[in-house]
């Protein structure tokens, strides 16, 4: 990490860009934006994503793994949940499936897109990407369980017609999601923290920061400053994404694509910080950090979104569709099976990265052309 980052200069781009993105959010919130304004807000969103990645790495360098990836995953997901609930409250019945579409998109993007890119970059660097099978396998098993309980079972339950949970079933799913997510965090950060550390940590000092762990960690004030700017940047990312969402919805409708594509685009936007951070970690031969980000984001997306939606359903009108269709269930099952075969050896080549990316491409193509 550079000395400029440790001194957190006020005129640095990593400070100015999040502030500019928040100002853009304030001026665009609740307004119908013309084309030029949409482009400006989108540029601010992109800059806020880059700033969020920078500040997440500063915080990660200070607190170490796996806490660094946990901070970014939880921060993004909390704000993502707020975005989904807000869009559902504003959208009426047409947003009945928005939570399902966004959560499933997040699972597919993280478990195939981020994992695939990370393995590809790691294998290109060292021929074989190496990681801890114990920690990554536990994370994948938890993702598979939460996804099945929350997104598959509603298709088959009979208490209510359609792919919906009854009130009691939704409560159970929410409690189970929170319990499993809390248990995973306890295992990841306390009881078996070593399962989630990069395999090369003993060779590079165990850091997770900007210079591959060799630079001295930032001071506590610098890390707190970056943490505050991380939150600001993430609020700007999700808020600006909401500001441009009417343009996204109009473009999707004009192109004749399914409404579910809106959830896919939202998930792609809000997961950009994790994606960039994971790829940068893989380039530094820290593939385990990348997998922590990928599976941690998937877990947070389900484990926090489902309870929040369950609470929001008390005042949201209209149905809450959570159950996946047959095509998406097949893709989820294939993702879990391929993910397990990738994780078990603790080593992966270009082939495994390519397989995961093809699965993501299949999901995106079938979302546009079901």
UniProtKB/TrEMBL annotation:
<keyword id="KW-0812">Transmembrane</keyword>
<feature type="transmembrane region" description="Helical">
    <location>
        <begin position="12"/>
        <end position="30"/>
    </location>
</feature>
<feature type="domain" description="Sodium/calcium exchanger membrane region">
    <location>
        <begin position="226"/>
        <end position="367"/>
    </location>
</feature>
<feature type="transmembrane region" description="Helical">
    <location>
        <begin position="291"/>
        <end position="315"/>
    </location>
</feature>
<dbReference type="InterPro" id="IPR052946">
    <property type="entry name" value="Alkaline_pH_Ca-Antiporter"/>
</dbReference>
<feature type="transmembrane region" description="Helical">
    <location>
        <begin position="168"/>
        <end position="187"/>
    </location>
</feature>
<feature type="domain" description="Sodium/calcium exchanger membrane region">
    <location>
        <begin position="37"/>
        <end position="189"/>
    </location>
</feature>
<feature type="transmembrane region" description="Helical">
    <location>
        <begin position="321"/>
        <end position="343"/>
    </location>
</feature>
<feature type="transmembrane region" description="Helical">
    <location>
        <begin position="259"/>
        <end position="279"/>
    </location>
</feature>
<keyword id="KW-1133">Transmembrane helix</keyword>
<feature type="transmembrane region" description="Helical">
    <location>
        <begin position="136"/>
        <end position="156"/>
    </location>
</feature>
<protein>
    <submittedName>
        <fullName>Ionic transporter y4hA</fullName>
    </submittedName>
</protein>
<dbReference type="GO" id="GO:0015385">
    <property type="term" value="F:sodium:proton antiporter activity"/>
</dbReference>
<dbReference type="InterPro" id="IPR004837">
    <property type="entry name" value="NaCa_Exmemb"/>
</dbReference>
<dbReference type="GO" id="GO:0005886">
    <property type="term" value="C:plasma membrane"/>
</dbReference>
<dbReference type="Pfam" id="PF01699">
    <property type="entry name" value="Na_Ca_ex"/>
</dbReference>
<feature type="transmembrane region" description="Helical">
    <location>
        <begin position="103"/>
        <end position="124"/>
    </location>
</feature>
<feature type="transmembrane region" description="Helical">
    <location>
        <begin position="222"/>
        <end position="239"/>
    </location>
</feature>
<feature type="transmembrane region" description="Helical">
    <location>
        <begin position="67"/>
        <end position="88"/>
    </location>
</feature>
<keyword id="KW-0472">Membrane</keyword>
<feature type="transmembrane region" description="Helical">
    <location>
        <begin position="350"/>
        <end position="368"/>
    </location>
</feature>
<dbReference type="GO" id="GO:0015386">
    <property type="term" value="F:potassium:proton antiporter activity"/>
</dbReference>
<feature type="transmembrane region" description="Helical">
    <location>
        <begin position="36"/>
        <end position="55"/>
    </location>
</feature>
